[in-house]
Amino acid sequence: MLTPPANLIQGKLVLYPSEILRFTCNEVLSFDGMLHHLVNDLALELIKHRALGIAAPQIGAPYRVFLFLYQDQIHHVVNPTLKVGDGMEAGYEACLSVPRMAGMVMRHKRAYLSGMNMHGRPVEYDLTGLEARVVQHEYDHLDGILFIDKMVPGTVRTMRNGGTDAQVL
User: Fold this and answer.
1) Which residues participate in catalysis according to the annotation?
2) Burial class (CB within 10 angstroms; exposed 0-12, middle 13-18, buried 19+) of 159
3) Cβ-contact 130, 52 below 8 angstroms
């Protein structure tokens, strides 16, 4: 597996096929100003692109951090752990880093997410439905996995102007 430089933070949306999207991200060791800056940059990109989630490698930062919308607010998790419940469902997904493409992906209906916030305090979520799908999608980014790797064959769609048939995750 490729090992990126530990201090790489660029703050610009990274597009497929950039190699950084395939890195296994580094665990965050310091809960400091650099981490706060990263979370802020991710929030700005999430808002700018009207996305439901975004992970650090999508802006060039190879760290285990992602943001997601939950109950109409932006939440973040650092060094997440993800456990999934029984039951799967299919749904169309799209991704900021893979523009103009969507595809059907099988995901677990329930996800249990835990980790830390940027202040080093524990956070936990029990998610279902769309929120469960979003955190699974973002968690995959931290391990260098893209939705196109999990797409059901024959379900690819080309989207125009960001698309309306799939949520951009």
Assistant:
1) 138
2) middle
3) yes
Specify the long-range contacts of residues 43-49, CB closer than 8 Å, at least 24 apart: 43/67, 43/74, 43/76, 45/11, 45/13, 45/96, 46/74, 47/74, 49/13, 49/96, 49/168
Give 67's strand partners.
Answer: 54, 76
Answer for the pair 26, 64: CB distance below 8 angstroms, yes or no. yes
DSSP string, 98-126: EEEEEEEEEEESEEEEEEE-TTS-EEEEE
Which residues neighbour 78 within 8 Å (Cβ) at sequence distance 6 or greater?
28, 31, 35, 64, 65, 115, 116, 117, 118
Q: What is the pLDDT along the chain (169 residues), one digit of tens a residue?
A: 333 444 344 458 999 999 999 999 999 999 999 999 999 999 999 999 999 999 999 999 999 999 999 999 999 999 999 999 999 999 999 999 999 999 999 999 999 999 999 999 999 999 999 999 999 999 999 999 999 999 999 999 998 765 544 566 7
pTM of the model: 0.90
| 53/131 Cα distance (integer angstroms) | 9
Q: What is the side-by-side strand order in the sheet with 65-70?
A: 53-55, 65-70, 73-84, 110-116, 122-128
